[in-house]
Amino acid sequence: FNNFLLQKLPKAWAKAAYPCLKPLASWVQDFMDRIGFMNRWLLEGPPMSFWVPCFFFPQGFMTAAMQMHARATKIAIDDLVWVTDVTSTKEPGELTGPASSGVNVHGFFLEGCGWNDADGLAESEMGVLFVSLPVVWLKPTKRSELVADKEINNVFRTSPPGYLCPLYKTSERKGTLSTTGHSTNFVMYAELRTSSSQDHWICRGVALLCMLDT
Q1: Nearest C-alpha neighbor of 190 from the set 99, 130, 121, 95
Q2: pLDDT tens for residues 30-56?
Q3: What is the spatial distance between Cα 58 and Cα 73, in angstroms, rounded to a whole number?
């Protein structure tokens, strides 16, 4: 009862649920939105863009999408990695069809910077803490077509390189290793277009979030 008064998620719920820092009312709405997305997928078929933050385990969805591409092209899945191509489509409802390969995804928020279609990452506007990222095309690409990162194992980059932006489920930006070997919070690195250096955005603490705390 106290949790309802204080708008906090009950511990029993949090133990069984996905990581989330939202107050109780927002958590319930977010939970219903997730059910709604899954229900539409079941009844209407695969969407043109997938709301990745709604998945309990986003890495599982990405692996499944990569497996489908690997089987269709007969390329070994171990030879493929994701390349993130941020499109100019602001809302998934504006799409006219699915991605030609891989998947379109949406629902991410940039913290620590802004975004424009011409240059990619941009300085934050005054008073704006978060901006919504347009629809992202997750494009399966052969490792041989990319450049291996010198500092991070199993990360491959385009040329010229962009900013390797970490994607987290929540704004805590921390987690623990689960039994699957994956972090409970970190999802992946997304390489985003930029005209500035990697260090420039690291100093600003730029990261992608799957959800806000409100």
Answers
A1: 121
A2: 999 999 999 999 999 999 999 999 999
A3: 23
Position 63, amino acid: T
pLDDT at 26 exceeding the cut of 90: yes
Q: CA 82 to CA 66: how far, in whole Å?
A: 8
Are 84 and 166 spatial neighbours (Cβ–Cβ below 8 Å)? no
Nearest CA to 139 among 166, 109, 100?
Answer: 100
116-137: average pLDDT = 96
Q: 16 with 9: CB under 8 angstroms? A: no
Please name the amino acid found at residue 19: P
- Tokens for 136? 């992202």
Beta strands of 42-185 (E only): which ranges?
Answer: 50-51, 80-86, 103-106, 109-111, 114-116, 120-122, 130-132, 136-142, 147-148, 156-157, 163-168
Q: Report the Cα–Cα distance between both ends of the chain, in Å, rounded.
A: 21
Q: What is the DSSP letter of 188?
A: E
Under 8 Å between Cβ of 59 and 66: no
As a whole number of angstroms, the distance between CA 209 and CA 105 comes to: 13
Enumerate residues 6+ apart whose C-beta is below 8 A from 44: none
How many Å apart are CA 82 and CA 146, to the nearest integer?
A: 11
Neighbour tally for 90: CB within 10 Å: 13
